[in-house]
C-alpha cells in the first residue's frame, strides 16, 4: 500500500471546477514533483491533500486512513504537513523559538539536536530573529517546523521561489536527506530542472487534469510533453 493514495478527486472554488478526477499515489521515502503551468491547479491539489480545501468527490487515503473529510489540524497530527508558499516564519522571535512553537503542537516532537543536525545553518542562526533571516533560511525554518512535528509526508509549495542557485542546491540536498531518513516529500515547483533533479517521480497537471505520471527520467525523455505542458518553464 502507498503512503498516500488519491483517487478521483474533484475540487472547486465556489462554482469554479479546478481539479478534475485527479488520481495519484506517493510511496514511502519518495520525492515526488507536481509540475504544471501557472494556474494548472498544483497549489489547489496540495491544499486539498492537507485539508485546507475539501474535495467535493473522490478519496484520499494517508497511511491507510481516509482523510478527505478530515480537518487540516487532524491531518497534520496524522503526519501530513503542508509548508505553504508564504513560509509564515514568525519574524519577531528567534529560529529556536519558532521551532519550539512548532514542537508544542506535535504529538511526539523530534529533538532539537536531530533538527540542527539536518539543518546546520539553522544551528548557527538559532538565536537570530525570523526577520533577520535570508529567504533560504526562512524556507529551512518552514521545513524544519514540519520535521520537528515528525511529519511523515511533507508537502512543499514552491520552496525555491526567489532563492539564489546555491541555496536552492542546499535545500535540494536537505530534501533528499529527509527522504533518506525515511520521510516522504511532494514538491510543487516552477523550477522544473531543480524539481526533476531531486524527484524520483513526477506528475504533470494541465488545467486541473493529470496528463503525465511517471519517473522523472521518463518525462525528461519526452521533450514533446515537456514543451506542450511546461513550455518555456522546461
Ligand atoms: N481562492 C481562489 N478562488 C477562486 N479561484 C482560485 C482561488 N485560488 C486559485 N484559484 C484558481 O484556481 C486555478 C488553479 O490555481 P492554483 O493556484 O492551484 O494553480 P497553480 O498550478 O498552483 O499555479 P501557480 O503556480 O500560479 O500558483 C487557477 O485558475 C486560479 O485562478
UniProtKB/TrEMBL annotation:
PROSITE patterns: ABC_TRANSPORTER_1 (PS00211), ABC_TRANSPORTER_2 (PS50893)
Pfam assignment, any one: ABC_tran
Keyword Cell membrane: yes
GO biological process: L-amino acid transport
Record keywords, A-Z: Amino-acid transport, ATP-binding, Cell membrane, Membrane, Nucleotide-binding, Transport
Domain ABC transporter: 4-232
Name of this protein: ABC transporter ATP-binding protein
Family: Belongs to the ABC transporter superfamily.
CDD domains in alphabetical order: ABC_TM1139_LivF_branched
Gene Ontology terms, MF aspect: ATP binding; ATP hydrolysis activity; branched-chain amino acid transmembrane transporter activity
Amino acid at each position: 500500500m502507498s503512503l498516500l493514495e488519491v483517487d478521483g478527486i474533484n475540487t472547486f472554488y465556489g462554482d469554479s471546477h479546478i481539479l478534475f478526477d485527479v488520481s495519484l499515489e506517493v510511496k514511502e521515502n519518495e520525492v515526488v514533483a507536481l509540475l504544471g503551468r501557472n494556474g494548472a491547479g498544483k497549489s489547489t491539489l496540495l491544499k486539498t491533500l492537507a485539508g485546507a480545501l475539501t474535495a467535493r468527490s473522490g478519496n484520499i487515503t494517508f497511511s491507510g486512513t481516509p482523510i478527505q473529510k478530515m480537518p487540516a489540524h487532524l491531518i497534520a497530527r496524522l503526519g501530513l504537513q503542508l509548508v505553504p508558499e508564504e513560509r509564515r516564519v514568525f519574524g519577531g522571535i528567534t529560529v529556536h523559538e519558532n521551532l519550539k512553537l512548532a514542537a508544542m503542537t506535535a504529538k511526539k516532537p523530534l529533538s532539537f539536536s536531530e533538527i540542527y543536525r539536518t539543518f546546520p545553518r539553522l544551528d548557527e542562526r538559532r538565536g537570530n530573529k525570523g526577520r533577520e533571516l535570508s529567504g533560504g533560511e526562512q524556507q529551512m525554518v518552514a521545513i524544519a517546523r514540519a520535521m520537528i512535528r515528525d511529519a511523515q509526508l511533507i508537502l512543499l509549495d514552491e520552496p525555491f521561489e526567489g532563492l539564489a542557485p546555491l541555496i536552492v542546491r542546499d535545500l535540494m540536498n536537505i530534501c533528499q536527506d529527509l527522504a533518506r531518513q525515511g520521510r516522504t516529500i511532494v514538491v510543487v515547483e516552477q523550477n522544473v530542472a531543480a524539481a526533476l533533479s531531486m524527484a524520483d517521480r513526477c506528475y504533470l497537471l494541465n488545467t486541473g487534469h493529470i496528463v503525465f505520471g511517471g519517473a522523472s527520467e521518463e518525462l525528461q525523455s519526452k521533450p514533446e510533453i515537456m514543451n506542450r505542458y511546461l513550455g518555456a518553464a522546461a
